[in-house]
Amino acid sequence: MTQGWTHTPSEGFLAHVGGLWERNVDGQAEFGFLAEEMHANRNGVVHGGMLMTFIDRAFGQTARLASGAPRAATINLNTSFMMPMRIGSFATLRPKVVKLTKRLAFMEGTVICGDDVLTSAQGVWRLASSTTD
Hints:
Blueprint lengths: L5 E3 L4 H4 L3 E6 L2 E7 L13 H20 L3 E11 L8 E4 L2 E5 L3 E10 L2 E13 L5
Antiparallel strand pairs: 1-2, 2-3, 3-5, 4-8, 6-7, 7-8
């Protein structure tokens, strides 16, 4: 990968899905996902649950960074799948904070692969005010 991408292997569950890619574009976080064979469903394309995991991680991290919260938890995540993602391709997502309150972050974004829109999503995250919330 070039163009400023950094791979974040992560720990826990995300380590099982291969981690994600991140970069900063004009002061905004952008996330990337490289589809590998382990992400395939029985139809030979990326499993929808993997795309939802990608979105969940990107939205959650963006909510934490925008709010300064030490942790965030998904309350709701709505996804609309528009076309399949092929194994071996690379998709990007630039999450947008729609509204930020003291306890909630409302997010939206679109997963794009090349010129194709794969998935659109909207969600709500609960923001923790401390590490024990």
